[in-house]
Amino acid sequence: MKGSFGSRRRLLLGVGLAAAGGAICERAAAQQSKISKDQAKYQDKPKGEQRCDGCAHFLAPDGCKLVEGKISPSGWCILYGAKST
Hints:
Layout: H1 2-32, E1 58-59, E2 63-64
Antiparallel strand pairs: 1-2
């Protein structure tokens, strides 16, 4: 019985470490896949009602999941996608 407890513990530890490693790799890949403001046709002003702070990709206070650099909450780019309500 004692041996199987140690094996389970190692298994659970391995699963936990693998999950943590996967999350770290996913975040790193997301950061590397951002595009430039020029590629996104980013502008510091809204396009009609469409503003970065209303976009699903906006990261408050001044970031974006898809575009590199600081983003104005009142800006806009071609990747705009309205937040779901």
